[in-house]
Structure formats: C-alpha cells, structure tokens
C-alpha cells in the first residue's frame, strides 16, 4: 500500500521494488529457515524412502536374468497374488471385528470412569491403560504363554469343567486369539483419549440435562457420546490404519505357531518376507504400496461416509 | 539486528539438525562397516573396534566374521591365539534366519556383509546363485581336502566349486524315552512300519504321543522324503538357468501321507518344535520319540531337558528305514564357514574359513559339550569322541552306535537355490495337512506347484 504512493518517482520506485524484493526475499528465506529442519528430516526420512520404494516397485529382479523395468507388473501381480489377497482379506475382516470391539470396550470404560470419581476409578484408569505401555513384542510373547495349553491358565480353567482347552494359536481360533491381544493392548489407549474428551465437556450441560429430566443413561447416550464424536472418529481412523498394517503380534506369535501363521498372514508380513527373506525388494515395495493404497482408500471412504453426520449415533 | 539474530539462530538450528542427521548416518555407516569390508590389508586389529571378541595381535590384518555357535568366543580366541597371520573379528548377528535376513540385505545393498560367514549347508545354493559366495578351491582346498568326508564336501559344493568349509553336521537318528519304551514293552522300531505299529500300541495302551510332526521344521520333512528316495532339486551350476524340481514324486507324497496319517490318527503330536510348548512336552514325557539330528542332545540339554528326575531317561537308536535291506542315512542342519564375495582379501578370508573351529581344542570343546557333531575327520576318528559315553543318553556310546555310522553313510544332498521359499511353502502345506484340510499327497502337489511357479518367475526353466 505505502509503496503505491511512491509510483511517481521512477528512481524511488526502482529502489522500492528492490527494497520490497529484499524484504520478500528475506521473509522467504526466514520462512524456509524455520521450516528447514523439519523439511530436511521429512524429506530425508519419509519422502525420499517412499520415492525410492516407489521407484523400486517398478522393477523386477530375477535370480536368472537380472533386473528389468516392468512398470506396473508388480502391482498387477500383487492384486492377482493369492497370498497378498488372502492377507488383505484377513486384515479387512479383522478390522471389521477387532475395531468395533476395541471401541465399544474403550467407550464403555471411559463412560464408567467418567461417571465414577473415586480413588478406585483413578487406579482402574491406570490399570486399563497399562497394557498400552507394555511393548507389543512382550505383550505378544506373554499372550503366547497364556494361550499355551501346557503352562497357560486355560487348561486349568477348562479342566475344572472337564473340557480340553481351545488352542487359540490353532488355525480356527487364531483370529479370535489375535483380536483379544489387540483389544487388550489398545482399548486402554483409546479409553484415555475418550476419557480426556469427556473431561473436556462443560458440566453445566449435564446439569441442564438433569433439570430437563434426563437420567444417567440418557445423558451418556444423548449428551456425552455425541459431544465426543470427533474423538471417536479420530480413534477409529487410528485403529483402521493400525489394523490394516497389522504386523507385530502375528510376526511374534509366528515363532510359536509357524503352521498357523504363515509368512503371508498379513500384507505387511508378506512385504517383509519378500523384501528381507527372499530379497525381492521390488515386489516387497509393490506390496507395501498396494497396501498403502488399500489403507488410503479405506480411510478416505470412512471419512467420506462420516463427514456429514456430526453426531455419531 | 533482531532479524540478524534470528537468522543466526535459525541457521544454527539447521546446522544442528544437519549435524544430528550426519552423525546418525555416519554412525550407521560405521556399524555396517564393522561387519563389512574394511578388512583388507589396510585394516588391522588396531582399527577393528566393533568386534565382540578382543583381538590380541593388533598389528595383524583382520577378517570379519559372523557366527552363532554357543562356544564361538572360545573358538575365535583359539584361532587368534594360534594364528600369526590374520585375526578374526567376530560378531553374532543372530541365529539362522535372523542372520540370513541380514546377510541377504547386505547382499542386496552391495555392502555390509562380513568376510566370512557361518551358514547352514542347505542355504549355500541360495547365496551362491546371487554370487554372494566365493569358490575357495584355489585358496588352500587341497591342504584340507582329506580332513572331511565326501558327503560333507558335497553339501558345501555346487558343481565342482566349493563354497564353504564344513564344520558340523546333523546325522539323523531317533531319540527315544527309555522309560516310555520299557513301560509299554517296545523295542526301538527299525522301520517306519514298525514305528507306526509301536505308536499304535502305545496309544492303545493309553500312553503318550509317539512323536511330533512340526510344521516349522520343513528341513526334517525334506530329509525324510530324501530318505525314501526323493530328489527334490537337481541343479547344475554350469547351466544355472535350468533347474529340476521334483517335490511331488511318489516318495515325497508317501512320506507326507505317512506323517499326515500318524497325525490324523492322533499317534503323533502336531506341535511346532523349538518352542517352549514343545520342550515342556519333551520334559514331561509327552513324546516317546524325537526324530532329530546329532546336535539335538546339546540343544535339549541347553533347554533343560534330561535334568533332575528326567536324568538318564533318554536313549538313541538309528533312524527307522523304509527298506532295512538298503538303509539310507540323512542329515538335518549343520553349518559351514563360507567366504563372501564382499571380502576384500578372499585368500586371507579363506584361511580363516579353513582354520576356524578346526583346531583340536575347539573341536574337543564342541563335541564334549555336544554343541556340534564335528565333520572334521580328526574328531570323527578320535577314539575319545567315538567311544564317548554320552551323559544325556545315560552313558550310551551314542556316537559309536548311532551317529558316526550315520554320518559315514551320508551321501550328501543337493539343496535348492531358493531354500527359504521352498521351506516356507512346505511349512504352509504341512500346516494344512495338520489342520486336516488336505492329504499329504495333495500337500506335495501344492508345494510342487508353488515352488515351480516361483522358480519360473525367477527366470528358471523348470524341468
């Protein structure tokens, strides 16, 4: 604005242009300097590896015949590969069962803990959260032992009724065995997020609701849950991304049940197997990107369908 | 001024970040270099700092080495003490699969592999086909040729080339529980038919399981198939593009069906082996036999088997046969030392491969503690080794009676150049057999199809 006034004098205008240019340049430079550290790490540790993996996924290396450029052949192969497809189908099914289970458990616990204020509630909150603080590997190993029919508690429990303990690491029950481990590990974490959201609600709302004659159940269903819908949405997205990339738990339980959990049990495990055990870095990268595509599509679809409905129930 | 200060600050911050990054990468670089190739003549013990062992003679050139034998430290120290030409810098990067994954990644990266590496004989073709191993014939093979039997050399050779120095083997036999056999009045079965009858007899009398079909030990299944006459892989490195894959011939089907039937009838367990679950079963006498290799007693002892009230309960008998008139001995496991193609000085590396674990002291420590079943004939012919009364087997002369004859009769095998894929495929189908969804014969067909497809995909002509 001020610069416009100086238009009449060409020499000053030139000067001003120059000054403006310097200021702008300086501002730009400052901006870049501030963004720099982050941008550097972001580029070096995220974008560059991604770009490299994408590049790798366009080639195919054979033991006989060497490397050749195949464009999207690896992707075509992935989406016709029964190993990848069955793994992808497994994680999709697993998401449909395990995520609602986790959310329901987390929500129920958060609502209870929000309604009760006592030392016991604080203690419970910590205990429910604790599994999240246990490293996944240790959690998986621990459950491996708990499921064991030789030294786990299951044999004793079922023995009381004269029944044989089910094998949660066997082919038929591994799905539920894993769903249980995941729920145990993550429900506490989601509970904390929901609990924090509940604590952020203005208590005056409850008071008003009570004056209007709402009971505890109605307050929970009609006030609390709609108000924490954004938090619910958040953890649903977290859970969806995490579950579609399922890796740690099955990878470690594989040491106990190699016959049940194959190397292609989930797409991520399959990508790992291809890249690091079979040296097919190209196909491994393609599987990773294909999985990334599925995750992206899943999350996008989810956000698309929930975008208008602000209240969740 | 303020701007100046801020700019300075920002620049400083950026520099710091850059430094952190640089430090990160240089650290990672030096880590891999420790396992890597810095070992030529220019690097001596003075510079090799990342070894697990302490190098005594610091002015000698150093060869880097990965290995996982439990007494590795002693073996490396013995070598370094006795050698005045080269010193070994040893790292244990994991056992079996863990190490192979790291080695595989180093091969793909073109850097980061050690000069000498311990690998199981069945993995040699997998790495050889990627040109990751060096033929060590010209580096002093003739001097040690007579120290090992022909079967041992065959396992580490491809065509006429030698890609490793044999260290230990796994002649297979049947470990059994004397208490169970005595209780149900069984003598060790000499054939697989007798094995099944004995298993039925024990089951009918309310006894424990007779053995175990583990999905995670495909190498055992392969060995037992070979015992019946299967030739899974035929491969001539002179024509590397062509490979013979016969994983569903009648012998392979028969053996898979045999074990599948035992499992279906409930005569054997279906537990993954090397797991706490399985070991606790062995400790508690849940399995009457364990079809395994000569290194098993050492492994079982280490896992706590055969101690306390189980002391002296175990004995060993030769592996049951299909045709007792023409017995066939097979092998499970056993490792070799190979020189990698990333070694800067292959000659020096070969000296290490030939010399490591080949001195009397190391070998004696290995077999007295049942860590290895040695393939070195110095040990195999040592009367003390042959006559050893193995405490795990209650003083039975297991080497003389069972393992040494088995090792001497072993003729060697040809392994697949994509061993990992083959074993994964076999594991998957054994899992399906255990689940009961397919028969052993169907499993063999599926493995054949799966592996043949993979081979074609990898550019081979499959015959």
Automatic annotation (TrEMBL), chain A:
Sequence intervals crossing the membrane: 29-55, 90-113, 125-146, 227-247, 286-305
CDD domains: TM_PBP2
Residue span(s) of domain ABC transmembrane type-1: 88-304
Location(s) in or outside the cell: Cell membrane
Coiled-coil portions: none
Keyword DNA damage in annotation: no
Keywords: Cell membrane, Membrane, Transmembrane, Transmembrane helix, Transport
Gene3D superfamilies hit by this protein: MetI-like
Keyword Transmembrane included in the entry's annotation: yes
Topology with respect to the bilayer: Multi-pass membrane protein
Similarity section: Belongs to the binding-protein-dependent transport system permease family.
Protein's name according to its UniProt entry: ABC transporter permease
Organism whose genome encodes this protein: Microbispora amethystogenes
